[in-house]
# Entry
Amino acid sequence: MRAITRTALPLPLHSRGKVRDTYRLSDHELLMVATDRISAFDVVLPTPIPEKGRVLNQLSLSWFRKTADLVRNHLAPDPALPGALLREQPDLEQRSMRVLTAQPILFECVVRGYISGSGWKDYQLTGSIAGERLPGGLRESDRLPDPIFTPATKAISGHDENISPAELANRTGQELAQQLEQLSLSLYRFAAERALESGLILADTKFEFGFHAGEVILIDELLTPDSSRFWDAAHYRPGGPQPSFDKQYVRDYLEQVGWNKQAPAPALPDEVVDGTSRRYLEALRRLTGPAGPREPRGVRSERLRRHVPS
Ligand SMILES: Nc1ncnc2c1ncn2[C@@H]1O[C@H](COP(=O)(O)OP(=O)(O)O)[C@@H](O)[C@H]1O
Ligand SMILES: [Mg+2]
# Structure
């Protein structure tokens, strides 16, 4: 499958994010197209990852459907994509989502069930994460006694900044902050349990919410390897970092070549591209079943031909 780095659809452009190109379908609906772009350390890399956009979109769709009873989300009531567009660019279908336009709430709602990444760094320095005191003696990747809510600002450009739940309440008001925390924690608990049924640990994840018709709804992507850390439960060994299905593999490569984390980023060699693509596909297979929710026939036969595990 050809990788798509940038789209140019005959629709008004709403925004281009690091990964998704979003178009206006009407006054109240958007078409979000997941490209194969990959970002690391908040910089978009020059090399795309084949299959990544499709995987992200199909995983998000599947989780939005599974969690619809828990929290209202941005999926449009009619999921059908514009027919004319699909006839011209059939590979858009698997990577696109029709959604309700929301007013994004500019905070990232992070939930951590395990101690890893910036949470582990914070804990080593302070014994806390986001101001929340934790028991002493935790090892890297240990499970936390209870999942914790560690929000961050969503920087328009540059790096997100972790803030405490109290600081979130200062900025959004107590009521909205509490609502975001409760929704995030219940989504995490639900998803962590479902992931474990597929043999995956959901170490942490990030949700985004927005306002639609005066109501808080879940927006953006949901429980993908770009927004979450998934670990293989069968190989879980706390006391160090865990191999994961996300872009840690790419980050490790970029660290190893000594990139200074300022744009432009270096290109990725073929083996890192293939390894990353394989990890994303494996996450999709594990979380949604052998062929993913709606895999087109072409992709399947292409994968068999290349002996990529499905
Ligand atoms: N339903 C929605 N309505 C309006 N904006 C949305 C909606 N869902 C997601 N978004 C926004 O669209 C963008 C998605 O593209 P993405 O590549 O993830 O951008 P970013 O670089 O900001 O992470 C995000 O900025 C996200 O906040
Ligand atoms: Mg994003």
